Amino acid sequence: MESWKVNLISVWFGCFFTGLAISQILPFLPLYVSQLGVTSHEALSMWSGLTFSVTFLVSAIVSPMWGSLADRKGRKLMLLRASLGMAIAILLQAFATNVWQLFILRAIMGLTSGYIPNAMALVASQVPRERSGWR
Fold this sequence. Notes:
The protein has six helices and no strands. The chain is mostly helical and 135 residues long. The protein has one domain. It is elongated. Helix 3 packs parallel to helix 5. 78% of the residues lie in helices and 0% in strands. It holds the Pfam family MFS_1. One of its GO terms (molecular function) is transmembrane transporter activity.
């Protein structure tokens, strides 16, 4: 199999699981936040929203930096960096003992993200011209 096809398949799986890892916590987040000691309904809603959205906010801020670094150092290296960073942040979220730790770990997850944009750039740069785009 050609190398660009192997990269496309592996990057597709990586993007799929990255999307799951970042967003599929939403249904369980209020329960987890309440387990961390937040009891009032208003505070529970606020902390659930903040801990979910901080990942995307931080990711939007740092994405241009990761893109620039990927152009200079290589996209595969940035994919590995993002995968490892997000995996560590997700693992550590299981050990959070208060809502602030969860919030900071979700922010760190956003800080180390950038997998999906770099994956798209990697695939776009490797796919032969006649195979790219819609047909």
